[in-house]
Structure formats: structure tokens, C-alpha cells
Design brief:
alpha/beta
């Protein structure tokens, strides 16, 4: 399996596929034709949102000359077909949205078990990337979650990586919920338990053959400290919690 853990795969919201940090080139190299895609919804019970996302995903790939030969959407309407759909796909796309809602749906479709047999390309965005971790870091996304003392900050995920991602850092760095700053008051405190990688849109982790690479602008929050760890057009190998710059030969 080749895994792309992205903050966002597009330029802006629902824009064109983002070529930053070699994403499109890497996708062209990894995807095999015919492309048989399954899009997994992050809002499985909201038909309107799911159908809009499905259209946007298909369009951005078509505009990048990566048209799908077969395309299916996995949400509550098609959950009884999950096993067949996933077994026939060679490209799985997991949407972004509300982490807990998506996490519950991934459990409903038994994706953690079924993904073990998958040998294609998995592209995830935002919440989808967060839910790929074994121990998912799920910070509050709404005021009421910040105020809820029973809100769960950690959930079991797909166990495809031990990397905890906080996407859309360019937006989150200034966000406040219920009087608490997402980064300064929440993420920094939580980083005492595990490092958190903050990705700007256009940055991603590429995992292939057991090797994890970080591509593009990123910061790491660890034990209360925020450190800039990677820049755009830069590649770093992540191994045993350490990042090492990859120098490409001309």
C-alpha cells in the first residue's frame, strides 16, 4: 500500500489538485490504470455533503488527467456493499470532516480489518489523515466539545501509522474555541503525551514500503515546544521519531 496523508489535496477548498511538494507527480507514479476509486465519506449520514464532496473529488482528479475508470461512494447508503467495493478498488480516498463522526463510520465498515488486504493507493485528507493513526489524536472542533469534560481526545484508528497529524495549521494557528486557543491552550498541553505534526495545506506524509517521508511545510509540537521541522520543496525521512533531510541526486 502507498499512503498519502495530506492536510488538503487541493488548492483552496474544492480547488484543483495541488502540485505542491510533488503530490501530483507522486500520485501519477503510484496509481495504476484503470483507476477504480472508492471515496469514503466523513459525513456518512449527510447525503448533500457527501454528494458534493464526491463530485469535487472526481472533478479535481479528472482535471489533472487522472480520471477514474470506476468510481463509487461509500456512505450509509452503500454500507452493505463495503466489502465488495473495497475489494475491487485500487484507490481509496478518505475525506476530511469531523474526526469523531468519521472515526465511528470507519469502525462501522470494519475498515481497519479490511484495509489490511488492500494493496493499492490510499489518499487521506484532514480528518481522514488523523484517523489513520493507531492512537488518533482528536482535539475539539466545536465550542461544545471544548466545554464537555467527557470529550474523548484519543480514539482507536486504522493503525496505519503512529504519526499524529494536525491539519490546516495555517488556519488553526489563530483559531479559538470556547475561549481556548487551539494551539497554545490545547495542542501544546496534549503534546506532553505524544508529538503532533502540524501540516499546512500542500504538505503531506508519504508512506511506502515501510518508509515514511514528510513533504512540505510542517511544524512539530512536542513536550510543549513548537519547532519548525520541514519547508516547502523539502523532503525528510521520519524514522524512530527523528527527521533526517533527504538530499536528491541530480
Amino acid at each position: 500500500m502507498t499512503l498519502f496523508l495530506t492536510s488538503s489535496h487541493t488548492i483552496g477548498w474544492a480547488g484543483a489538485l495541488n502540485p505542491a511538494n510533488g503530490l501530483i507527480d507522486e500520485l501519477r507514479s503510484a496509481l495504476t490504470h484503470p483507476i477504480r476509486c472508492v471515496m469514503i465519506s466523513s459525513f456518512p449520514d449527510d447525503v448533500e455533503i457527501t454528494d458534493r464532496m464526491a463530485w469535487e473529488v472526481r472533478e479535481c482528479f479528472e482535471n489533472a488527467d487522472l480520471a477514474f475508470d470506476h468510481y463509487e461512494v461509500l456512505d450509509r447508503r452503500t454500507v452493505d456493499q463495503a466489502e465488495r467495493m473495497l475489494s475491487e478498488a485500487n484507490f481509496i480516498f478518505i475525506c476530511g470532516g469531523h474526526v469523531p463522526t468519521e472515526n465511528d463510520f470507519l469502525k462501522d465498515i470494519k475498515l481497519k480489518t479490511r484495509i489490511k488486504r488492500f494493496d493499492g493507493v490510499l489518499l487521506t485528507i484532514s480528518a481522514g489523515s488523523m484517523n489513520c493513526a493507531d492512537n488518533v489524536y482528536s482535539p475539539p472542533e466545536m465550542d461544545e466539545e471544548v466545554l464537555d469534560p467527557k470529550y474523548k481526545y484519543h480514539r482507536k484508528g486504522l493503525a496505519l501509522t503512529d504519526v499524529n497529524i494536525l491539519p490546516h495549521y495555517q488556519t488553526l494557528q489563530d483559531m479559538v474555541l470556547a475561549g481556548k486557543h487551539i494551539i497554545k491552550d490545547i495542542a501544546i498541553a496534549d503534546s506532553q503525551q505524544h508529538p503532533i505534526y502540524c501540516l499546512n495545506d500542500g504538505s503531506y506524509f508519504l508512506i511506502k514500503d515501510g518508509i515514511t517521508e514528510l513533504r512540505g511545510e510542517a511544524l512539530r509540537i512536542n513536550k510543549g515546544r513548537i519547532t519548525h521541522v520541514c519547508s516547502d520543496d523539502e523532503r525528510k525521512l521520519l524514522k524512530n521519531g527523528r527527521l533526517t533531510k533527504i538530499t536528491l541526486k541530480n
